[in-house]
Write a structure and sequence with these properties.
The chain is mainly α. Helix content is 56%, strand content 0%. It contains 16 helices and no strands. α3 runs antiparallel to α4, α5 (109-119) runs antiparallel to α15 (369-381) and α14 packs across α15. It starts with 33 loop residues before the first helix and ends in an 8-residue tail after the last helix.
Length: 403
């Protein structure tokens, strides 16, 4: 099958008619599958709307055309659906996971996450993936019979495990969780609602994860060019990029830099999608999984870049790390953003009345330090960049400009 054509539903796709259900039993929708219902709930959530004013790399007021968490999320969803369609997967579940994957990110991108992790170090730290789980299982208050969005088991599994298993069967943490253990928010939740942290998630979740990589590699190049942190020809040090640039220059000699950059980003996304499809097709043909559970029980992910493309993708990340994420201009803003989060956390700890009434416990309730710290962390994590700046201006005499 050629790339771009829709495949019939695959035997290894998640079947909405065989969903493992929801934590809180609800009557089925008359008009929507369980996964379409999940997707709609994510789109209508408060946390999703807040992504509009949360940093991707550049703080919102640095320019109208830089990506925010929301535009990044929409680009991830578009790429994920394209791959899901080609592989015969459930597009609604794939879209749900793509749209939900960053709901737990705090203001100011990874700078905000680092700051909250320090603030909450004594109480389990901060992990944006665990925070996303908190958002969809407890922090959203939109329904009369439960907290959270009451998403299907498959959506919760994908949110938690889209990057792979978190532990072995014996409970030993693996990968990036080996040093500090499974994040407290996830570990606590699975005691009440098992998500099988020892195996892989569905192909739909794996597709959403790799779409995230493709999207932010491509759009961070686009934003870095727009911000003039580097030039198109600087990317020629990466062989894959040099080849794409050469093809563009041969086909469109004399093209202006803006269109040249846009064409580069388009061709890069197309190259990555084609490479992932080919590698996924190869692995699926080799293993021939007969069900979604067969996918979960494999010893490796089935959605991945082929070796040469994986090396090129790693080179792009390394380039962006040096030329963009650690650029003096970006680092200066992010240091100020981290301090702003530290300031807010300390102020709320010292003066609970500084927080909105709906975020305070009942006056008669004795609150352990860990619970109190997590409540403050949840409040800050839900802030947009703009609201965090406004709060800081309200509570402090001087607030950094973040430019």
């Amino acid at each position: 099958m050629s790339v771009g054509m829709a495949a019939p539903r695959s035997v290894y796709a998640c079947d909405p008619d065989r969903s493992r259900g929801r934590q809180f039993v609800e009557p089925p929708s008359r008009t929507r599958s369980p996964f379409r219902r999940d997707c709609d709930r994510v789109i209508h959530s408060t946390a999703f709307r807040r992504l509009k004013h949360k940093t991707q790399v550049f703080v919102f007021h640095e320019g109208d055309h830089y990506r925010t968490r929301l535009t990044h999320t929409l680009e991830v969803a578009q790429i994920a659906r394209a791959l899901a369609r080609q592989l015969g997967l459930d597009e609604d579940l794939t879209e749900t996971l793509a749209l939900a994957h960053d709901l737990g990110h705090p203001p100011f991108g990874h700078a905000g996450e680092r700051a909250l992790d320090v603030c909450l170090h004594a109480h389990g730290g901060f992990d944006h993936n665990a925070q996303t789980l908190r958002v969809v299982t407890s922090l959203e208050h939109r329904y009369p019979e439960f907290n959270g969005l009451n998403l299907s088991w498959e959506s919760l599994e994908g949110i938690v495990k889209h990057n792979g298993p978190l532990m072995l069967r014996d409970g030993s943490p693996v990968g990036r969780y080996r040093e500090h253990g499974v994040p407290v928010g996830i570990a606590e939740f699975v005691r009440a609602y098992e998500l099988e942290l020892w195996n892989f998630a569905s192909l739909e979740a794996q597709v959403a994860a790799i779409a995230d990589d493709i999207a932010y590699d491509a759009h961070d190049i686009d934003d870095g060019l727009r911000a003039e942190l580097f030039r198109i020809d600087d990317l020629k040090e990466i062989p894959l990029m040099a080849g794409i640039i050469a093809e563009i220059d041969a086909q469109y000699p004399g093209l202006d830099e803006s269109r040249r950059g846009a064409e580069l980003v388009r061709e890069l996304i197309s190259h990555f999608i084609g490479a992932v499809f080919s590698e996924a097709h190869r692995r699926l043909e080799l293993i021939k999984p007969a069900s979604a559970d067969d996918v979960r029980n494999q010893s490796e992910a089935l959605i991945a870049f082929p070796g040469e493309t994986a090396a090129a993708e790693a080179a792009i990340k390394a380039f962006l790390k040096v030329r963009m994420y650690r650029h003096a201009r970006v680092m200066r803003v992010m240091r100020d953003a981290e301090q702003l989060v530290f300031d807010l956390f300390a102020r709320y700890q010292n003066d609970s009345a500084a927080m909105p009434a709906e975020w305070l416990p009942p006056e008669s309730q004795l609150e352990p330090d860990a619970v109190r710290a997590r409540r403050i962390g949840n409040f800050i994590a839900g802030m947009t960049d703009r609201f965090a700046l406004t709060e800081h201006q309200r509570l402090f005499d001087s607030t950094p400009d973040l430019r």
